[in-house]
Design goal:
single chain, alpha+beta, Alpha-Beta Plaits, three-stranded antiparallel β-sheet, globular, disordered N terminus
């Protein structure tokens, strides 16, 4: 429907012309001029909204789910990511953290080499006296990666526009534009970025963009033996990730920051940072 109020101020002639364009009719009753315009009926509005929504559903928007109740801390995802993306030694695009809880309320977070080689059976270093002999009461693993936020602080601070978002919602770094200033590394509240010592530019998880644009899944998803990582098109109601999001309670990291991450978690404990 034509918008009659495109301009803050219009003349009477312009108003009548716009009304005519909108299918309006003008009646004169003595000194009273009445202009009627076609209104959008409720059923018409519903039809148009449904059509727009169907069009939006066809657009591919990627999402990622991490199920912490399934992760076994094997490190397969970290190794697969490093091999697939040539990640330099000492750095990770994705990593796994181990959370261990003790009876006195202490929570120890451990991530040796980003969890690349697993965690073994040894307990993490603690600050408790040995004579207490306390054993952990519970523990779990939390895989982490770039959250590909909707409200991205990393994109906002980039002075050269090297950090950007694709039409599918994936946050990437343009290697031709990045100057290696590190602003985005500091701005990311999740510690997901680093300066690559070999390329001298910002580096991060891309959800294996070179793979997903060819219909393949990210390397970490393929390599996970516990199926703790799920990736797919959230705009497709029949996709695995859409079914999981519809049937599970999911959370995001640091929700209070308002970055609206596209990476979501199942079974995320309140102690996870």
């Amino acid at each position: 429907m034509t918008n009659l109020w495109d301009k803050p101020e219009i003349t009477r002639r312009e108003f009548l012309e716009k009304c005519a364009d909108a299918g309006a009719k003008t009646f004169v009753f003595g000194g009273l001029v009445v202009t009627t315009a076609k209104l959008l009926l409720p059923q018409e509005a519903t039809t148009r909204w449904s059509a727009r929504r169907k069009g939006a559903e066809k657009e591919v928007i990627y999402g990622f789910v991490v199920d912490t109740t399934r992760c076994i801390g094997c490190g397969s995802c970290v190794r697969a990511c490093k091999a697939e993306n040539n990640v330099p030694d000492g750095f990770c695009r994705t990593w796994v953290e181990q959370y261990t809880f003790f009876p006195n309320g202490e929570v120890v977070v451990n991530s040796p080499a980003g969890g690349e080689n697993g965690f073994g059976d040894e307990l993490p270093d603690r600050n408790l006296p040995e004579e207490l002999g306390q054993l952990p009461v519970r523990g779990f693993f939390v895989p982490k990666l770039c959250n590909h936020c909707i409200n991205t602080p990393c994109i906002q601070v980039c002075p050269v526009g090297a950090s950007y978002k694709t039409k599918e919602g994936v946050v990437l770094v343009d290697p031709q534009r990045c100057v290696g200033c590190g602003y985005c590394v500091q701005a990311c509240p999740f510690g997901s970025r680093f300066l690559n010592p070999e390329t001298k530019i910002a580096d991060k998880c891309t959800w294996c963009y070179h793979r997903i644009t060819k219909g393949m899944k990210p390397a970490c998803v393929v390599s996970c033996p516990a199926k703790a990582r799920i990736f797919g098109n959230v705009n497709d109601p029949k996709s695995e990730i859409s079914q999981i999001l519809a049937t599970n309670r999911v959370q995001v990291l640091k929700s209070y920051l308002g970055t609206n991450p596209r990476t979501r978690y199942i079974g995320l404990d309140s102690e996870v940072i």
